[in-house]
Amino acid sequence: MSDKIKFELEFVIQSSPQLLFQYLSTPSGLSEWFADNVNSRGERFNFIWDGSEEGAKLLKRKSDEFVRFAWEDIEDDTYFEMRIRVDEITGDVSLFITDFAEEDELDEAKMLWENQISDLKQVLGSK
């Protein structure tokens, strides 16, 4: 196990779980907000930012609920997960992000996700 710290963030997203899931689980959806470009072959996803490429393996997915990826170049058991939850009473859709970061990079990692989710909300037309 690494010495990275697990953290979770919650964002309320004004979208249907089905539409949101498309943006979390498909290369075309992810390239709209998460990376400049995303390609996939089977369980392997390539994320491209500013000409630099990172590979990730799709570990788990459940339609309209969650996706979990692990970066290929990191030799530990960390992952990042995007999970959709619908409040049974209000019907509000929330996106939970689970990720890991070094202690001295925790604030930066959280801010990066906040910026990414802000882009996602813009693409979805969510406030």
From TrEMBL:
Domain START-like: from-to ranges: 1-125
InterPro entries reported in the protein's UniProt record: START-like_dom_sf, START_2
Lineage top rank: taxon: Bacteria
Pfam families recorded: START_2 (PF19569)
UniProt protein name: START-like domain-containing protein
